Every structure is written in C-alpha cells, then in structure tokens.
Amino acid sequence: MHIDARTLDTGSLIEGDLCIIGAGAAGISLALQWIGSTRRVILVEGGGFTVEAQMQALYHGESVDRPYFPLQSVALHYFGGTTGHWAGFCSPLDPIDFETRDWVAHSGWPFSRGHLDAYYARAHAILELGPYDYDAASYEKRDPDVRRLPVDGAVFSPKMWQFSTPTRMGTTYRDPIVKAPNVHLYTYANVVEIVANAGGTAIEGLRARTIDGKEHRVQARHYVVACGGIHNARLLLASNSRVARGIGNDRDLVGRYFMDHFELLAGQAVFEKAHPFKLYAYPGRGGKGARAELALAGDLQRTHRILNGTASFQAGALTGQETSRFVSFSADAEVNVKQQEDLAARGAARGPAGAPPPNTVFRLFTRQEQEPNPESRVVLSAEKDAMGMPRANLHWRFTPLDKRSIRAFYELLGREFGRAGLGRVQLMEWLLDGTNDWPDHLSGGWHNMGTTRMHPDPSQGVVDANCKVHGLANLFVAGASVYPTGGAANPTLTLVALALRLSDHLEQVVA
Ligand SMILES: Cc1cc2nc3c(=O)[nH]c(=O)nc-3n(C[C@H](O)[C@H](O)[C@H](O)COP(=O)(O)OP(=O)(O)OC[C@H]3O[C@@H](n4cnc5c(N)ncnc54)[C@H](O)[C@@H]3O)c2cc1C
After folding, report:
1. Residue owning the nearest CA to atom 15 of ligand 1
2. Distance (Å, rounded) from C-alpha 474 to C-alpha 21?
3. Quick count: other Cβ atoms within 10 Å of Cβ 323?
4. Which of 71, 295, 306, 452 measures 20 to 30 Å from 240, CA to CA?
C-alpha cells in the first residue's frame, strides 16, 4: 500500500507494529521479508519514486578535511535509495575481516564469516546475482581461457566478484511493496527526529515532515533506521530534543569511525609474457558475469600486520604523467634504475605499432579497507536543510596503517611475480615518498560505512550483535553504518545479508 505523506492532513498519526525508516537497499530488503505477515509494517521514505533536485538538496553537506564525493550525490534520496545509481559490484567479506586483528585498531565483528554465509546466499536472490559461489575454480572449469595467474596460492589468490544487473531496487521492488496489504509505504515523509521516552530507554515515536511543511507522527512498537551510512548517523545525532547528545550517543560514538574503501591507481605490472586475463576482466554491466581481483592471503596480512586489500588489472600502461618515478619490485628487493631500463626493454617489447604486446602491461588498481578511526567522522553542521534538520558534515581521516598497507601489498606482489618469473610491479611516486600523504587521484568507493558500529560492549559500539542500539529497547540500525571494519569488498551484498539477518531476529522480537 502506498500513501503520499503530502496528501495527509498535517498532524496525522501513522501507526504500525514495525517501522522501517528509509527505503534503500537495506530498508527494502527488510520490508520484502515482511510481505504477507500479520504485522503492519510502516516503511517511511523521505523521497518519492524518482530522483528530484529539491530532495537531493536535503543531503547537501561539507567535506571538511579532505575532498570527498559531494554529499548530495554520494547517496540518493528517493525510493530505492542509492541503488538508483550503484554499479552492482558484489563480493562477500573475507573470514579475516571478522577477526579481531591486534594490528588493526578497533577491529573485530561479534560473529564470523561462516555465520553470514546463509544470509549471503539469500541476499544473492534480492540483488539478482548468480549462485552464491565465489570459488575461482568453479569459473576456471567452465572456460580454458579463464585461468588464474600462476602464483603461489598461499600468498596471492583470486578473490571473485559477481555483478548485479545492477538491480535498481526502487524499480524492481516497487510493485511487490506497493501491492502488499500489510506494508504501508509513505513517500515524501522525511523523519526529522526519533523521539525517545522520558527515561531515554525506548523510542516512543518519530516526527516526519513533508517538503510542503506538514508534520506527522509515526508510532510503532519497533523501529529500524535504514537511511544509509551518513544519514543513519545524522538522524541519530539530530534526534536531540530529549537526549542532548542524540539517540544512542551516550558514549559519543555515533558518527565516528566513518570508513570508505581506498580505490586508486597504485602502479603497473609488466609481465614477461602474455597470460589470458579473462578471469580478471570486468565482464561489463548486465549481470551474471564474474571476475577476480588478486587478494593477499590472510596469513600474510597477519605476518606483515597490514589491512585487507586487492589489486585489479586494467589493460595498458601508466601514462607519462602518472609515472614520474618508479621503483620496481621483484623477487628479492627493489630494482635499481639500470635493471628497470632492462625491464622496460624486455617486458614492454614494442609491437609493430609501438605498443607493448597485448596482455603484458596492466595498470594496478587498489581496493583496500580503511583502518577504523574515531577521528574519521560524520558530525552535524550548524546549517539546516529545508526540513529544519541540521546538515551532515564529513571529516574523512586516515591512519598511517592505511597507506603503509597498500605499499606493503604491492611489494609482496612484486616479489611474488618475480619469484614466479612472471614479471615486475612498478609503483607510483605517491606510494614511495615515505610520507602519510595521499595523491590527488585518491578516491573512495562511494561506500559509507562504520558510523554506528557494532560491538557487544556499549563503550565500543553503537549497536549490539543484533543491530539493536545499546540502551534502547526497540531501536535497530540496518546498513553499512554498523560495520566495525569494511573489508576489501563493496558493502551492499553484506548490508543486504545483514538486513535479512536482522529481519529474522525481528521476527522473534515483534511477536
Ligand atoms: C556511484 C555509486 C556506485 C556504487 N556502486 C556500488 C557497487 O558497485 N557495489 C556496492 O556494493 N555498493 C555500491 N555503492 C554503494 C551502495 O549504493 C550502497 O551501499 C547502498 O545503496 C546503501 O544502502 P542503504 O540502504 O544503507 O542506503 P541507501 O541505499 O542510500 O538508502 C537510504 C534510504 O533512506 C532514505 N532516507 C534517508 N534519510 C531519510 C529520512 N530522514 N527519512 C526518511 N527516509 C530517509 C533515502 O531516501 C533512501 O531511500 C555505490 C554507490 C554509489 C553512489
């Protein structure tokens, strides 16, 4: 059932058993599980069914320390949320991502990767992915040209990715949601405050506003905040009329530990001879395809005390501008300039048109997790949006481990390529300068994580292992904001899996 909140009389009371705030990847995944249940589910969405400039403007905010994506375009504010322009890259987190790693500050999930496998399999259906199979051997069996690089599998192995069509959840799931008699979708209903009871122990209602100035009340027995990685924190922080620090923020943790993935060019690989790179090639949009990135084994991450990351291969060499200085890494150590010249002559032997032979030179593209950092955070701005809600500002901040891990990864990759007689890895200047500075081409992945982190101990996390906000009886959080660490995989598959897990938990709770 669909109701446009602008058509209601101001001051209307909207009531249900379970209220989900936000109809994006997490909120829709959750709502779908409740279709046909005897419970009345309220799905409160701030936007309409299409992207609109005045709704996107509500997301405007400043990136205070370093450039980030404009906050009004890093997430979409309408039914379907940011799946309206996501790219569909999916891969599960690795087992090591869930471990407490003594070299990664604030690491450790309250459960293991094995616990999530059944939910990942279910999430595949929602994101219209192929079978839940991330074993490279399965793909190699199907096509002789799909072959892994002949490196030591105990050091580097292919981490598989699958590609959603990409599913636009607002299109694919609009009908099932709108036609479900027990799911009441309210569009143009922006929640501007979550209101706690006088004791601050439970939520007693929501205030929701429309762009034309109406205000409604929402009451349910249980609430789930599913507004995305930045706006989950913003809404909790802005809900401060009764609880001065904001909801769930007794320990000043809401908004902290903001993480994205580091996604940037780090160097190039020059191979002695061609290898069919079909396993590593992006199959393009349209779904059902898969490809691998090269991942460093968990044991080696442990030995070298570095973060989890991958390298993917983009055909072609770095441009002159990108290669102001190189150090090559081979089997033993850094290679001197003379050897580099030999390498250039050998590895990049020119073909008739002056280009290196195909499949011998690849740009190396990094995808790496960010160390959880309490100083990397979403805060409220003094400026308010058109609904009267404080805007979100972002401080995206890094630790020395972040950059050191990327360099160490590629040194190990170069040594392994050298040991295996495959070729060399050459790193870009920014990785070699011995500083913690980052280059202008640093990019995130458009992935907003960590701002309401999960930890069983309320002094270390905003939500517990069931995604319930510590200290509040009936408030839960869905989305990548609950991730304690981000791993080297894009977030949506995992956040959909977690939404399904939360839904199973809520079935016990919303009796
Ligand atoms: C360009 C781009 C490419 C991406 N590519 C990938 C990719 O390849 N793979 C991947 O895994 N991820 C990718 N992502 C990230 C992915 O889109 C997000 O991880 C995912 O959409 C987050 O889901 P969510 O439900 O937490 O938030 P969202 O999808 O952002 O949904 C939040 C919902 O809450 C609503 N809302 C917000 N505030 C309020 C409020 N106060 N009241 C009511 N409703 C509210 C919003 O309108 C929205 O519908 C990409 C993102 C971008 C921007």
Report:
1. 447
2. 13
3. 15
4. 71
